[in-house]
Design brief:
Length: about 400
């Protein structure tokens, strides 16, 4: 379906989609339940398909400024065949698609969260999503890792920012029991209302969401290393590292800048970092708690390549943003959004109720810069907080 924008600009198109196929009677490969019974797929994905139809109804009544392209995908369950074909042999110039939004399984919100996949694949998406949720307050879970689990991935492989909204897997998933009477219709309605506001916000957004290189390599651990300041610490000291696959207890050094001019005991490529400031690298909460040490006197313990001897070195401390007693780092996918690394006791940030682990998001209607605002927080509602996925407003 094609809904031309009133701006009549070919270049700005948002693609909305959902897959409408399911697994039929099921096969060994596709069914987790009894094969031979019809698998209706009420949640997977009649729920997402309905959401997209509702979106079409909305745009029919309220014509968008930018073009809207709606595609309901077939053969997702056979390996994203429909969406892969679309991007591989497009009937429409792919470079005109600024964002792809996929809705796959939104019928099981109950008291859980709405998973947002891909929020860091397009720069600036994070705050648009959070702002669109202000009136709905759906608990959100921004996933760190993007996986090839639905049609949005076909777009990501072509460097088009893409999102998926999803309420999670459950014990009726890919079984004959995924039937309409098991869906949370109230939850799905909330999600659709959020999606309509999100679509309106996208339509009013004037700059494209630049694809973020590296976003396909993100995972939860990498995001947490960024938020805890560890990536910054290593970067300050010229060290690049990534997790050893399947071994979250070790970060492997992949590159050392100016290695010739480093002290003799410095790690080299292939070394495994085991602790930072004496905290094991897989203890993310411990690392978050050790933040003050990153500012004062950070240390690093590593096992050199081809050696079993642990070595400990002192590192150069990080320099980071500190305003009103709060240490902040910007979100990997949205420079306007800030994660709170630490709050000094009795500071004005602490008195405002900001705590470690919060995310500070500017209200789009006010065009606020979070850092300016934190230095002089008036009016208070120009910024809001996400804490564990829930929205909190300043009183
Ligand atoms: Zn699905």
């Amino acid at each position: 379906g094609w809904i031309p924008g009133t701006k009549q600009n070919d270049k700005t198109t948002v693609q909305y989609g959902a897959h409408y196929d399911h697994v039929g009677y099921g096969t060994k490969k596709t069914s987790l339940g009894e094969i031979g019974l019809i698998h209706n797929g009420a949640d997977d994905n009649a729920s997402g398909t309905s959401a997209i139809l509702e979106l079409c109804r909305h745009f029919h009544k309220h014509p968008p400024r930018n073009n809207v392209l709606v595609v309901l995908w077939d053969a997702e369950e056979l390996g994203l065949l429909g969406s892969k074909h679309f991007v591989g042999d497009p009937v429409f110039p792919l470079e005109n698609i600024s964002l792809a939004v996929n809705v796959d399984m939104i019928g099981q919100l109950t008291d859980g969260t709405l998973e947002v996949h891909g929020s860091r694949t397009g720069m600036g998406l994070r705050s648009v999503i959070a702002n669109a949720n202000l009136d709905h307050r759906i608990p959100m879970e921004y996933k760190g890792k993007v996986v090839r689990n639905s049609d949005h991935y076909a777009f990501l492989e072509h460097k088009i920012p893409a999102l998926m909204f999803h309420t999670g897997l459950h014990d009726r998933y890919h079984r004959p029991a995924d039937d309409p009477d098991t869906l949370d219709y109230k939850g799905a309605t909330r999600i659709v209302q959020f999606l309509l506001d999100f679509a309106t916000a996208l339509d009013n957004h004037n700059s494209p969401f630049e694809f973020r290189d590296g976003s396909l390599q993100d995972d939860r651990a990498a995001i947490r290393l960024h938020e805890t300041g560890i990536t910054d610490l290593l970067d300050t000291n010229g060290i690049t590292a990534s997790y050893v696959p399947g071994k979250p207890s070790h970060l492997r050094v992949t590159n050392v800048k100016n290695s010739a001019s480093r002290p003799r005991n410095w790690p080299t490529s292939g070394a495994k970092i085991s602790t930072i400031c004496n905290i094991p690298i897989d203890d993310i909460n411990g690392l978050a708690g050790a933040f003050q040490s990153l500012l004062d006197s950070p240390s690093l313990t590593f096992i050199p390549k081809r050696s079993a001897m642990r070595k400990t070195i002192k590192l150069q401390p990080i320099e980071n943003i500190q305003i009103a007693g709060a240490h902040l780092i910007s979100d990997l996918g949205d420079p306007r959004v800030f994660y709170v690394q630490q709050v000094r006791k009795d500071s004005s940030s602490a008195r405002m109720g900001i705590s470690q682990g919060d995310t500070l998001i500017p209200r789009h209607t006010r065009n606020t810069d979070v850092l300016d605002w934190l230095a002089r927080p008036k009016p208070r509602n120009a910024v809001f907080v996400e804490r564990n996925g829930s929205i909190l407003l300043f009183k």
